Amino acid sequence: QSHARALISVAGTKARAMLAKLSSLDLHPAAFPIGTAAATSIDHTSVNLWRGNDRPDGQPVFNVLVFATFAESLW
Is 75 contained in some domain? Predict the structure, then answer.
């Protein structure tokens, strides 16, 4: 059971910049290091956002957990 939530993983060179335009969080590595999590909203949708381990090539990974009914709209 996922409690009706969907996980969207965002990674790559522009992941931080893209998410910074959609949320009010400071996603700079000093303010939002690996393992940090926060509840926020993206496009008026409540989400849980956390920073996962970087990919082997050093690119950051951000995970967005959203209610399944809003996942397609958020995507």
Answer: no
- Is 40 inside a domain boundary? yes
Per-residue model confidence as pLDDT tens digits over 6-25: 999 999 999 999 999 999 99
Closest CA to 12 of 65, 51, 61: 61
- Chain centre distance of CA 15: 9
In a domain, 11, yes or no: yes
Instruction: Give the CATH number for residue 40.
Output: 3.30.1360.120
